[in-house]
Amino acid sequence: MRVPKFMPARSIAVIIVAAGKGERAAGGHADPKQYRKVGGRAVLQRTIEAFLAVEAVTQIVPVIHADHAEKYRALGLDDPRLLAPVTGGASRQASVLEGLKALAPSRPDRVLIQDAARPFASAKLIGEVIAALDQHDGALPVLPVTDTIKRSLDGISVSTTEDRQQLFAAQTPQGFRFGPIISAHMRSGTVRREFTDDAEIAEWAGLRVAMVEGERDNIKITHPEDFARAERILQGQSRMETRIGTGYDVHPFEPGDGVWLCGVKIPHHAKLQGHSDADVALHALTDAILGSIGEGDIGMHFPPSDMQWKGAASSVFLRHAGELVKQRGGRIVNLDVTIVAEAPRIAKHVPAMCAAIAEVLGVSASRVAVKATTNEKLGFIGREEGIVAIASASVEVPGLD
């Protein structure tokens, strides 16, 4: 039996630093590097979507240049966890501080700080940085330095050779406990020194910063030739492909005072019979999502013989199916549910139903459609003995071939 993983409640915010002009990587292009496309999508869009794919992330604040508001809007990003962008400062350090200030009212437990120009941070890497914060004030991904490093005092002749066994190249996301890092950033403004990254500010403030293993593909796009490397990375990764799944469920009526449909309770002279809350629509939709990724059906994950699911809200099942999509690096493209019933009438409840589904899955309500029809008085549905739901799900996941 597969048991869904329930993570402890914890707020984890992300700051995406995208306030630079990206001039070094311009290469004759009018757009700053974070708005140039790699594999058909803007670098900044890919970076944000990498964090939206991680369920543990609760909010994301982009920090953008004052002149780039229209470019950012043109990305068309839409997710309830994505906050309105804030304007950055004259330096990266100042921009991060603006992001921290924007998050201060919600006071998240943890904060990850990510360069917009690193679009390939994996969910695994992000998760390891988050996990390290359980034991440390800060954490960052690093790679061991493999080249021999020479130090020169005048830029002409070699002064000494560094011990590369003690040298590591830092990447982002860099993660911190929120209170200590915002305090460190506020105090860092009082010294005449430009810090190279947030981990250096944490070190200066006396915080304990741990290292986790970085990733070779987690490159920072800095120079024009880096775009060609980014395209090669994408070509080497599994290409995204669209999968379609369908679901069907039926539940009979029994005495009661209302039916659960798409996470909304609708008053009625009967209720639906079932082991859980008998939300026939969410059951069909859960099966559709599971089918799209080849994960069987709802009964495999939540057996009716298991009493822990007795009377459970069907949103638990739907959320689990959505988590499985995210674990595969995928995303939900759109969902379509058709409810077949003579009664109750659901038209006025459709907006609430779409909103409920969207909230459970962390997608925009515009990606959800709920419709209803009757069976023209025919069969068991026509006799008002039960309700049928049919659903389809379209998801995008990395290809397996």
Automatic annotation (TrEMBL):
Keywords: Isoprene biosynthesis, Lyase, Metal-binding, Multifunctional enzyme, Nucleotidyltransferase, Transferase
Nucleotidyltransferase keyword on record: yes
Pfam family, one: YgbB
Recorded GO MF terms: 2-C-methyl-D-erythritol 2,4-cyclodiphosphate synthase activity; 2-C-methyl-D-erythritol 4-phosphate cytidylyltransferase activity; metal ion binding
Organism, scientific name: Devosia aurantiaca
Residues that coordinate or bind a divalent metal cation: D249, H251, H283
Upper lineage: Bacteria, Pseudomonadati, Pseudomonadota, Alphaproteobacteria, Hyphomicrobiales
Necessary cofactors: a divalent metal cation
InterPro entries: IspD, IspD/F, IspD/TarI, MECDP_synthase, MECDP_synthase_CS, MECDP_synthase_sf, Nucleotide-diphossugar_trans
Free-text function comment from the UniProt entry: Bifunctional enzyme that catalyzes the formation of 4-diphosphocytidyl-2-C-methyl-D-erythritol from CTP and 2-C-methyl-D-erythritol 4-phosphate (MEP) (IspD), and catalyzes the conversion of 4-diphosphocytidyl-2-C-methyl-D-erythritol 2-phosphate (CDP-ME2P) to 2-C-methyl-D-erythritol 2,4-cyclodiphosphate (ME-CPP) with a corresponding release of cytidine 5-monophosphate (CMP) (IspF).
PANTHER family with a match to the protein in the record: 2-C-METHYL-D-ERYTHRITOL 2,4-CYCLODIPHOSPHATE SYNTHASE, CHLOROPLASTIC
Amino-acid positions noted as binding 4-CDP-2-C-methyl-D-erythritol 2-phosphate in the UniProt annotation, renumbered to this chain: D249, V250, H251, H275, S276, D297, I298, G299, T373, T374, N375, E376, F380, R383
Region (2-C-methyl-D-erythritol 4-phosphate cytidylyltransferase), start-end ranges: 1-242
UniProt xrefs under CDD domains: CDP-ME_synthetase, MECDP_synthase
Coiled coil: none
Stretch list, region 2-C-methyl-D-erythritol 2,4-cyclodiphosphate synthase: 243-401
Pathway the protein takes part in: Isoprenoid biosynthesis; isopentenyl diphosphate biosynthesis via DXP pathway; isopentenyl diphosphate from 1-deoxy-D-xylulose 5-phosphate: step 4/6; Isoprenoid biosynthesis; isopentenyl diphosphate biosynthesis via DXP pathway; isopentenyl diphosphate from 1-deoxy-D-xylulose 5-phosphate: step 2/6
Protein encoded by which gene: ispDF
GO terms for biological process, alphabetical: isopentenyl diphosphate biosynthetic process, methylerythritol 4-phosphate pathway; terpenoid biosynthetic process
Protein name, UniProt field: Bifunctional enzyme IspD/IspF
Site (Positions MEP for the nucleophilic attack): R164, K220
Site (Transition state stabilizer): R24, K33, H275, T374
Taxonomic superkingdom: Bacteria
EC number: 2.7.7.60, 4.6.1.12
2-C-methyl-D-erythritol 2,4-cyclodiphosphate synthase domain: residues covered: 243-395
